User: Fold these one by one.
Assistant:
Number 1:
Amino acid sequence: MSKILVTGGAGYIGSHTCVELLEAGYEIVIVDNFSNSKPEALKRIKQITGKDFDFYQVDILDREALGKVFDEHGDICAVIHFAGLKAVGESVAKPVEYYHNNITGTLMLIEEMRAHGVKKIVFSSSATVYGVDNTVPYVETMPTNTATNPYGYTKVMIEQILKDVYVSDNEWSISLLRYFNPIGAHSSGLIGEDPNGIPNNLFPYIQQVAVGRREHLNVFGDDYDTPDGTGVRDYIHVVDLAKGHLCAVKYVLENKGVEAVNLGTGNGSSVLDILHAFEKACGKELPYKITDRRAGDIAWCYADASKAKKLFGWQAQYNVDDMCRDGWKFIQQNPNGL
Ligand code: NAD
Ligand code: UD1
């Protein structure tokens, strides 16, 4: 009982998790439509691990194609569900596309899982579900119904759907993993974050400044109520995050029920902390300008990470310097992405 279906496995977090799954001895099957990733990522997973796996270029909205994957792999015992669209700004401009892809896609997946008797799922949720009304550190028991954008609402709603699925059938085992800010790359430098177009997120933007693809970083506001005035986030090494999925898979395989779990370090770093840590890693100064705040941003976001430790025996191992070292290695080796 060790074959895991990974949706969105060619993506940033998915590819790192597939490496950890293969290295831990799991068999995997990946489904991805490459809407935000490239086939090269799959080659790199094989290169790092020396292991092979089946891949299907399938859109999870295509229920029939998804069903065939389950038919061909009758021994799938659990699903890790990464597939989804994730750009906050784009979700405001294209709410229908976001709700359809993320929510309808998840419903199709749940239906096919049910049809094939697979009732164990690890879902990629986000700290975004804590919205703007809660105060840090965020604890899993806080209310999570006040997202600030359609992307965030897809996470809130999918969490609710999965909770209701469990209520309807107590045979299910569901892990709702609320990620904080994953950054960095695999230590090989072979896989990492490779966004299309201008990066929305801080770390890939800094990476591109470091290799000269962007002139300078825009720091979105230095007048927040934080130690240096810039926004504070709980950055977590993507490999730590990937290892958290191994713990979650083991947990859902051995238990029933539904659990929301934060995956963060419990520590906050400011925008300038990350910039300076990256400067240390790459050995040069990186130009930046202070600009206006970005709409929808909050001052503070960090996890209470104690539940993951208690439930999974998991805690993050890497610090911000490790994240920057590995992120620098990836972008040096792949200055124009994968
Ligand atoms: P990503 O875009 O790199 O990976 C998502 C993958 O899913 C991509 O390879 C994409 O091609 C695929 N995909 C999207 N829609 C699909 C569909 N309909 N059918 C098949 N494949 C599809 O993103 P990521 O950073 O690896 O994030 C993975 C998951 O974690 C997402 O659900 C995201 O919302 C969530 N998450 C990410 C972050 C973050 O900071 N990266 C934070 C919180 C939550
Ligand atoms: C964002 C999303 C969140 C999503 C996560 C991962 C918003 C409001 N939140 O989180 O829902 O789950 O990405 O995709 O978009 N910053 C700069 N300059 C930049 C980019 C960012 O100063 O060019 C600052 C931001 O103001 C913030 C910090 O860096 O203080 C981190 O930003 P980012 O990497 O975009 O992540 P979040 O906003 O935390």
Number 2:
Amino acid sequence: MKILVKSGRVIDPANNIDEKLDILIVDGIIAELSPNIDAGDAEVVNAAGLLVTPGLVDMHVHLRDPGFEYKEDIVTGTRAAAAGGVTSVACMPNTDPVNDSLAVTKYIIGKAREQGSINVFPIGSITKGMKGEILSEMGELKEGGCVGFSDDGLPVKNGEMMRRALEYAGTFDVPIISHAEDLSLVAGGVMNEGPVATELGLKGIPWVAEEATTARDIMLAELTGSHLHVAHVSTKGSVELVRLAKKRGVRVTCEATPHHFMLTDEAVRGYNTNAKMNPPLRSRENVDAVRAGLADGTIDAIATDHAPHHPDEKNVEFAIAMNGIIGLETLLPLTLKLVGEKVLTLSQAIALITCQPAKILDIDRGTLSVGAVADITLINPNKEWIVDAAKLQSKSRNTPWDGEQLKGCVMKTLLAGKEVYSRS
Ligand code: DOR
Ligand code: ZN
């Protein structure tokens, strides 16, 4: 089985490649990259005028399966990923039941393998049932295929518990992913604290609710020497905490979401529940700090926090609406926007959604090295398209970009050389 991806502009940041090359795939593996490969008996995929990148890696998604299949399931979530050019996702454990057992981990991996469109790497919970009381059996879960541990959606309230989690995970060399939030400081807030919240009459969430826990967890990473990954950093202070910790040599990595580098809390006006998420959209100053963190390498990955919810959970009063937005199908154009706005180089942007998240989770994806699995995304960087929430592959419709024109379009997604998405 041979496939030749012909004449594309190949961008593989892990190998410092940005040039016009052909890629020969044999039996799902990248066999050769060179300027002019003879097609022979290979099936030819014409990539002229397109970018050819490693399949995108999104290290923070909620597939909602098992338990909340009315929002999304492994079939629709992985289809949405393929349509977004994403060939690998790490899925968060806040399902029902929580992914704190081998049974759930195996269910996710099995269903993804049999019915999914792309690679799914489960994240196990830090504590059983995400209750913050008893550590999960991380060793067993890692053996079963979990690539990290998180109670995402909730913070680990107890500092001692977080310390033990880092120590324990450290022995298996897997990251602890912190959803950094001090709920006592959130104190019932529903959007960013500031003038917009005041005008709308909504209770605000202060920056310190995020930064206090980020600071604690960084110090615990320093104490234990274990790998801490901070999810969805959204404030200037969080970026600075990570920056300083990296300078001190702490094993900390972090991610930012497209919504936190594209939108401010102004988007909440009109009580727009598709601008409600956790952490909340912040002020311009914070958005600029997240962008600066992406540009200078403080932030290691862009991840969507794809959080599907049913319309009935969003078409309600702002204060009681669920947190989160879908993101898999808009990840690429929103990331490319940072290139258009000269925040990132193209190579930096692609690294943030391929090799860098893959490295954090230690998964062998995100590059086009010879011998690697041929997960490949073909992109038309200039094609403009209008987001139509009703037509997305995700089961849910909760995107703030409905009706917006975005630039940069996934034309084809290959998983181990096999086409899993194609756009005409
Ligand atoms: O907006 C969010 N949605 N933030 C989280 O931390 C959890 C997520 C969800 O599960 O819906
Ligand atoms: Zn979270």
